[in-house]
Task: structure prediction
Amino acid sequence: MIPALTTGSGAADAVLVVAPLLAPLAAAATAAVLRWRLATGLVTIGAAGIILATGITAATRTVDGTALTIGNWLRVDALTALMLIVIGAVGIIATCAGLGHLEGELERGHIDDTGAHLYSVLVPLFLAAMVLAVLANNLGLLWAAIEATTIVTAFLVGHRRTRAALEATWKYVIICSVGIALAYLGTVLVHYAAQQAGVAEHGSLDWTQLSAHAEDLDPGVMRLAFALLVLGFGTKAGLVPLHSWLPDAHSQAPAPVSALMSGVLLPVAVYALLRYRVIAIASISPEFVRALLLTIALASLLLAASLLITQRDYKRLLAYSSIEHMALVIIGVAIGTRLAIAAALLHIVGHGISKATLFCGAGEILSRTGTTSIAEVRGLLTRAPVLGGAFALGLAALLGLPPFSLFFSEVGLVRAGLTAGLGWAMAVMLVLLLMVFVAIAVKASGMLFGEPATQPRPTVRTLAALPFATAAPIIAGLGVVAMLGIVDWPLGPLLHSASLIAGTP
Amino acid sequence: MSNGLYVQLLYLAVGGLLLSSVLVLWRRELSAIVRLLIVQGTLMAVVALLLAIERDSIELVVVAAEVVALKALLIPGILRRVLRDSAEARETEPLINVTASILTAAVLTLVAYGISRPLVRLAPSIETQAVPVGFAMVLIGFFVLVTRRRALSQIVGFLLLDNGIATTAFLLTGGVPGVVELAVSLDVLLIVLVLQVLAARVRLTFGGTDIDELRDLHD
Amino acid sequence: MTPGAMAGVLLQVVLLIAVAPYVVGVMRQVRARLEGRAGAGIGQPWRDLRKQLAKEAISPEGSSWVFTAAPVVLLASTLVIAAVGPFISTASPLDRVADLFAVVALLLLGTVALALAGLDTGTAFGGMGASREITVAALAEPTILLVGFALSARVDSSNLAAIVDRIQDNPAQVLSPASVLAAVALAVVVVAEAGRLPVDNPSTHLELTMIHEAMVLEYSGRDLATIELAAALRLTVLLGLWANLFLPWGVATSASPSALGIGAAVFVGKVAILAVALATAEVFMAKLRLFRVPELLAGSFLFGVLAVSSSFFLA
Result:
């Protein structure tokens, strides 16, 4: 099942495994003590930087198929390293934007000191929970970490305490808790199947053990378990049928938090499914796994496409686009060949970074125009060239235009799908993608080029320029997405190595 | 403990769990519903304790103690506070009336029996025979969650769901490994605390905890 | 049929008839005492019956034979149950007839006869009472069938005596979830069928709430006495059935005089305890509004379903 691998566990490797977890925890502790100030913001950015750095270092160590472990609990392989890189990269963009965001909110009086304090503690905790989820080798721990993200983000989504924010938070917490509870039921069933199959008691939720003994697990139980897991983690990834929290939460959360949620939280849930797929594919029929995932993914894509067409709010537009992209990633997981998995992972990277820049850009647009309505934002390119330009490029990346990496990952998906004999699914996918393209392009052109239909508000004739701290990571992020599209290096070997772990030949 | 007595007591406790879930659908007074949750938490601890005695497991005794502390004392205590603050004693108008809810519960029980058949078939034993009850609790909890409109009722629905899952875990495997069990319990407690705070905010902002009021966000 | 067995059946019927009005009397007395009244004494229903029996029955103008036949059908159907059911002994020669489903059908026959009589009078109250009674019966009937199914599934027989015998041999079954759920479900149905609180208030004559009383409003004299006796007998029979199905101890398994004597004494004791318990509970209960009655009966139906399903998966 798993490609030949050696397990490294030297002291330096142990540091590599623990560092990305401890860095954000330390940042949270710092913020708890020092409260909100520039220094705590910088420490949080530093923590995100450490996650990225350890992700890259871990990638160089694991690209040959090595896995670094601490006991049975934590494990870093190429797949984990890739996820760490995404978390780190998106984390840097979001925490940088967070600096400006908090200052602005404090200035306008939307939040008070306590609110800023809470925000600066919860964001690094959020990062830590996601890092723990990708590091976990124990499936119970993986579940608990993903559940913890719900708890940590609850007060981030409702940070502004408006009616709408409160409504979004309530829906978010209730729906995600239920979804994730179903995933727990699935985990329990896997545990049961493992126990009956004689996988040792202490290791019966151990991913390494389970994937090694997956053939022995009872197919009847595993089928039920996998369906529950797809439903449960699918909730967290914004897939139908329990997706309705996503547009509300993403549109109401502060922009940097939306960036983190869309850019990494959703992929972390998909990552959990990717891990479970390795077990499921060996214990139950691959057709069942593929049919289940494909159905849910195409339904989500259809939902996203149809709601994008009628969308009037640009933050919700971005939220539905996240559903669309997660659906694409799940289609890749459903196809399941190595090419498809590599494409899906590249898609996660590209989508994560470009969506993070877009949400941060959207946050800046909101703070300058005071509206989230697409119709009320007009002529962005002339009124704020840098912001408008970055937003336009981000949308171009999101729509899968070359040279951005999303173009290449989508092409990779289609190729993998055709090779796997899923021509009809690819045809449906492309039609829906075309709908999405038209919908977003029409809305975006109005926002970027359109003339204001009514008398513009006197204060917003020209918009304030983007501060450097926010602009730099946004532009750098877009540059990275473009670069990933053009050159194979440095991600290529890592993607290959990760697809060996999660993909079937 | 003799085998016959063990089976008798286990099935009685499990039957009580199912009964208490169903009664949640029946009762309109929120305080009565909270009392039912206390009963349910206690019965779950009884199940854990019976398993502990049967398997001579100290770990399960600890788990039983933790279940009592969490599900029979701590969480109902939090719910009581939500109730006391909100001054809304009754679930006024569930989306589906009580008669239909009760009949739905009957159907859900049969559905639970149907979907849990592969689990029973894998390892038929005294404990796994009772697993359909856990699934029925999960389904009933889900049903409460989607048809009730008070904030507290929705929390209750979530807790029913969670109790159902925990019951299933006990019956199938004698509970998940200790560390995971601890993490799960902590998560549930934190979720309930978060929901408590949110319910208070909803009440302050909307002047009531009717979740139907939450309809500003839509497409 | 041996003389001993004949005597047993005879004893059972006579005992039930004799005891029935006292059951009603006890319940009224308990209520009265708990509500702080002196009460009329437990013999009052018998005294009422004696008085009514001495009076002439009057049929309302325009009513047909249905009206006059109904009390007789009601009393006769109830008497059949009283004769065949395993109240005192499970060794009665009529036991083969005492099928759970036959008993349910007999109960329904009485209900339908009375409802038809209520309609036959052509008055507003009669029709209203009949329609309500049939609604309640229609909702209660499925529950009885389900409970019967749950109870007979473990015995592989729907014969009442066989069920009682089996539980007596195997007392641990009384506490099985199936049995407990069935007991709760049947208790609700007994309350509904006997027309007690919270489904119907036997002592009310307020037009908005009455069910049973609305149907029998036009009866007088001997006919009224017949109906009152039948109603009391029905209550006793239902309580007795419930007691023996779920707490079967003391029921005679042979036709020997001593066993029958013990059986009779235990039966009277059990019914008395249940009657007191029911009356006490009624003091603390308000009548449900009519449109909430289906809720209660749906609940008992649910318990029936749960009893059946748990008798399968927890067995």
